[in-house]
Amino acid sequence: MSKTNPGRFFEDYAIGQVIRHAVPRTVAEGERALYHALYPARHALYSSDEFAAANGLESSPLDDLIAFHTVFGKTVPDISLNAIANLGYAEGRWLLPVWPGDTLRSESEVIGLKENSNGKSGVVYVRTRGLNQMDQPVLDYVRWVMVRKRDAAAPAPEPVVPDLAKVVDAADLVIPEGLDFSDYDFELAGEPHRWGDYAIGEKIDHVDGVTVEEAEHMLATRLWQNTAKVHFDATNREDGKRLIYGGHVISMARALSFNGLANAQMIVALNAGAHANPCFAGKTIRAWSEVLDKAETDAPGVGAIRLRLVATTGDSASFPLKGEDGKYLPEVLLDLDYWALMPL
Amino acid sequence: MSKTNPGRFFEDYAIGQVIRHAVPRTVAEGERALYHALYPARHALYSSDEFAAANGLESSPLDDLIAFHTVFGKTVPDISLNAIANLGYAEGRWLLPVWPGDTLRSESEVIGLKENSNGKSGVVYVRTRGLNQMDQPVLDYVRWVMVRKRDAAAPAPEPVVPDLAKVVDAADLVIPEGLDFSDYDFELAGEPHRWGDYAIGEKIDHVDGVTVEEAEHMLATRLWQNTAKVHFDATNREDGKRLIYGGHVISMARALSFNGLANAQMIVALNAGAHANPCFAGKTIRAWSEVLDKAETDAPGVGAIRLRLVATTGDSASFPLKGEDGKYLPEVLLDLDYWALMPL
Amino acid sequence: MSKTNPGRFFEDYAIGQVIRHAVPRTVAEGERALYHALYPARHALYSSDEFAAANGLESSPLDDLIAFHTVFGKTVPDISLNAIANLGYAEGRWLLPVWPGDTLRSESEVIGLKENSNGKSGVVYVRTRGLNQMDQPVLDYVRWVMVRKRDAAAPAPEPVVPDLAKVVDAADLVIPEGLDFSDYDFELAGEPHRWGDYAIGEKIDHVDGVTVEEAEHMLATRLWQNTAKVHFDATNREDGKRLIYGGHVISMARALSFNGLANAQMIVALNAGAHANPCFAGKTIRAWSEVLDKAETDAPGVGAIRLRLVATTGDSASFPLKGEDGKYLPEVLLDLDYWALMPL
After folding, report:
1. Does the distance separating the beta carbons of B189 and A26 come in below 8 Å?
2. Please, are residues C128 and C80 in contact by the beta-carbon 8 Å criterion?
3. Is the Cβ of B133 closer than 8 Å to some Cβ of chain C?
4. Looking at residue C279, what is its pLDDT?
5. A325 and A208 belong to one structural domain
6. Residue C104 in domain
7. What is the dihedral of CA A70, A73, A79, A82, to 10 degrees?
8. Quick one: angle between helices B64-79 and B29-38, nearest 10?
9. Which side of chain B, N or C, has fewer Cβ within a 10 Å radius?
10. Are residues A316 and A231 in the same domain?
């Protein structure tokens, strides 16, 4: 019998099943440096131990998306090796900062199952938790994927579709212990705009563009130990292209959003996300944001801002999103809805 | 007189000569992160401090091949700058784990010399030792290379061909102090297959493929301070290609072998190795393994498994190796014979 | 009003103005590993904690050019976002080693302003200081750039052109505390040539070449948080090329200069520098050096050597520099004038 991992098929999931994903990973200064080489990341809290300390943290945590990618990457062999599509995210919350030296692992619980009408595939909903070496949850999110059936003749399970919040309630956001933006240094952070300067409905063109290379997205995807072969194997498609990991686009767009949102320091919730179109090497990624909501928090000087982050291979100045048919425009790569923390 | 290093020619070597190679190197978390970005490395012992601690080690050592590449890289300016071919490896043993913060240097002793019948080149055999900052040997191996003569008229030395073991005896394998696989967590490691599940003669297709890029192999080769110009200078060949460092293929194949050999955690010996054909950017590397032997060890729960690891640019499912003429098939890049440690 | 950074125009600068640049950065082992993967850097003092300790330093500092690039990168959003050309450097001095874990930030003072006769742009001179987390200066240099005017009709300021030293006086070089080359190990360092072996006027062809890739120069430039869009956005130019950050060429040439100048360990002053021609991916960089001057220092066993470092995409053996018209030859990328420390 083959010893290699064939991945799970739709029939292999059951409601309530808990999957303890393999290969825990210690993340440290090396991962931080690579993250900053791969993306034009400049949010000061993740760049400087002194800046972080001046805002109440012990030192500079690893970028929130390092935690996300690492936790996500561990789930790939169990959840998305036979996935046809990554359909959505919901109820994502960052629960604790990840510090250099922490070891992360992931667990997922199957919370929904619905076979497609074609009988060849189905949708699997999982709630994934990232845990550190003290078994403390650092991240929690739901994602759902369309997975192939091994055998089309296998009976369909009773459909269960979880009732997911459209948006994480601002009251449920977890503010890192000690975070205090009362003495926030806007000059060192790079922009003067504070929470009060942003209006709901406001759109920001982040202006800059980055043309992506095969070597870069593969370095990134491997770093998160994401092994989905579509990202690495050029013989997998007729055109010889490698599909870029959607998370690479998330990190690129988030880093580009510094220009206009330099003070949206910490990502604390992922409300929703769609990988609207595939991305390939040679494309130039641009980004724009829209302020969807704002909320106060209990932490000193800290406000929450809900942002739509859109990545596009076209012109970001025209804020492309959907066509008249309600479908994403072909140049749109990503439509992400998240909460960030910002100085008041 | 020129101040640059012309490299050594065949006449510059003498039996018993000891070469202390230049530029010691401190390796740390940064090298680990880069290794994991360059290769799809996932063996849990090298990914997680907690996993390593649960198996009796102080923390997660640096990947065994980081030690190999670093020690090897130091020898290049003295051994292989004028080499025509890297002919073979033997009697390689890992003697101590390398920990983040260790400083490695290399020494080689010339143990064999044999001029070729054409009088233009000869074969040099060296035993190379890698040493840490406490002058403890961490790695020991023999390699032989074909080296140009400076002057074809120079007299041939008395031929000395060392008597090298075809395989490192299982009794001579060095098990890292404290290693204990009694409570090995197969679920966290990623596969259920234990030492007892592998049969001598069994072949495993590792399935996944990675298409290699110029930027990646150059990043890797520089990281090991390997300066052989064929790897970096596109003007060196008429077709503008850069020859990929053979060690890049070793690390890629070893990382791919996780899929089917996730529990072959530690490399402890290099019995033999052939770089069967050159590799160039744009090729897609696949790998397969064959179980050559098995042995017990004195360490609790720890078995040794001797593996052939073959890298190919073709289809790994057909286990390509040699043609009817006994020569390596053109798609075969690497034929490596090593011992690894695995939970019983 | 737009929240993105439009950069400063010529009218936005005034003599005596001090700009505190944004986004301090903690640099550590990860940055070191990436530097060594991006460039063939091998100077032993920056490669080995033990080698550094044997020469009187606490441990191995980060490469001098990591400090330079990081400090320089911070100035880009304020100084060179609307720059037409980076015109020159002067009076650069490294004042303190940068250790892993240090946090760097930058400040610049405007020390010169001169509108061009076309009324569309002007030259801005700034003195930039890099500071560590204890507010100690680690680096100090002057650079001048040609910057666009926002409004051609804006009145020209009173011209002020600073009186800059052509060369940093050898007596003003700052030797790191404790540095002692009395017991310098030439064998471990990689070359036998000491300070006394170099003659003023001597030229050294560094022989080796490295062909540069898009992925590599972008990784490097992002690592220094240099955000100039010309380096990243292929849609910025009609030919789809990305202009390579001049600092990438500096680091590549300096690393190549190991072959012939392995003992020119520490860069302590930047006397002058010209980015003679732009560099693009696919070019092969070679380097040569000329000994411009030598000086003694007060530190035990330590001499200073003033070097011209030239990077070229052509043949380095012919020492290309300028044509009969006094202009740089088209294959010359860089002409750098610096002081380094070398064992006597």
Report:
1. no
2. no
3. yes
4. 97
5. yes
6. no
7. 170
8. 90
9. N
10. yes
Helix (H, G, I), strand (E, B) or coil at C248: helix
* pLDDT (tens digit per residue) in C81-96: 888 888 999 999 999 9
B243 touches chain C (CB under 8 A): no
pLDDT given at position C6: 84
Determine, yes or no, domain membership for B183: no
DSSP secondary structure letters along A169-190: -GGGPPPPTT---TT--HHHHT
Considering B97, B129, B151, which residue would you say is the last residue of a domain?
B151
Give the chain A residue nearest B46 (alpha carbons). Answer: A25
Q: Indicate whether A228 and A323 sit together in one domain.
A: yes
Task: Provide the pLDDT for residue B227.
Answer: 87
C243 occurs within a structural domain: yes
The pLDDT of residue C1 is 55
- C-beta separation of A25 from B48 below 8 A: yes
Q: Round to whole Å and give the CA distance between B169 and B173.
A: 7
Tell me, what's the pLDDT at A31? 98
Q: Please indicate whether, in this complex, the C-beta atoms of B222 and C36 are within 8 angstroms of each other.
A: yes
CATH of the domain at A326: 3.10.129.10
Residue C238 confidence (pLDDT)? 85
Which of A22, A28, A30 is closest, CB to CB, to B189?
A22
Would an 8 Å CB–CB cutoff place C30 in contact with chain A? Answer: yes
Q: Which of C26, C38, C42 to mutate to test the interface with B (most CBs of B within 10 A)?
A: C42
Q: Which of C22, C26, C233 sits opposite A49 (nearest CB)?
A: C26
Domain-embedded: residue C145? no
Optimal mutation site among C18, C26, C99, C227, interface A, most CBs of chain A within 10 A: C26
Judge if B139 and B231 occupy the same domain: no
Rounded CA-CA distance C222/C106 in Å is: 17
Pair (B116, B196) in one structural domain: no
Taking an 8 Å cut-off on Cβ atoms, the answer to whether A20 and B187 are in contact is yes
Question: Does the CB of A153 have a partner CB in chain B at under 8 Å?
Answer: no
pLDDT bin (cut points 50, 70, 90) of residue B1 is low
**Residues from chain B contacting residue C215 (CB–CB below 8 Å):** 213, 215-216
Closest to C234 (Cβ–Cβ): which among A51, A208, A211? Answer: A211
**Residue B40 to residue A229, Cβ atoms within 8 A:** no
For residues C127 and C265, what is the distance between their CA atoms, to the nearest angstrom? 26
CB contact under 8 A, A22 and B187: yes
Same-domain status, A223 and A127: no
Q: What is the pLDDT of residues A228-283, one digit of tens each?
A: 889 999 998 888 889 999 999 999 999 999 999 999 999 999 999 999 999 999 99
Asked if C20 lies within 8 A of A188 by C-beta distance, the reply is yes
Give the model's pLDDT for residue B7.
87
The arithmetic mean of pLDDT across residues C165-194, rounded, is 98
Same domain, A2 and A137: yes
Q: In the prediction, which pLDDT does C229 show? A: 86
For residue A211, the chain C residues in CB contact (below 8 A) are 214, 232-235, 242
C37 residue type, one letter: A
Q: Which residue of A has its CA nearest to C77?
A: A190
- Report whether C77 contacts C5 (CB < 8 A): yes
**Could you say which of C29, C42, C48 has the minimum Cβ distance to residue B29?**
C29
In total, how many domains does chain B have?
2
Q: Domain limits at A225?
A: 193-344
Taking a C-beta distance cutoff of 8 angstroms, is the pair A77, A7 a contact? yes
Name the DSSP letter for residue C256.
Answer: H
Average pLDDT over chain B reads 96
Q: Which of C33, C42, C208 sits opposite B229 (nearest CB)?
A: C208
Structure letter (DSSP) for residue A202 = -
Q: What is the pLDDT of residue B35?
A: 98
Contacts of A210 in chain C (CB under 8 A): 218, 232-233
Q: Does A15 touch chain B (CB under 8 A)?
A: no
Torsion of the alpha carbons at B42, B44, B48 and B49, rounded to the nearest 10: -140
Residues 6 or more apart whose CB falls under 8 angstroms from that of C344 comprise C181, C194, C195, C196, C301, C302, C303
- pLDDT < 50 positions in chain A: none
B306 token code pair? 């001797």
Asked if residue B251 and residue B112 are part of one domain, the reply reads no
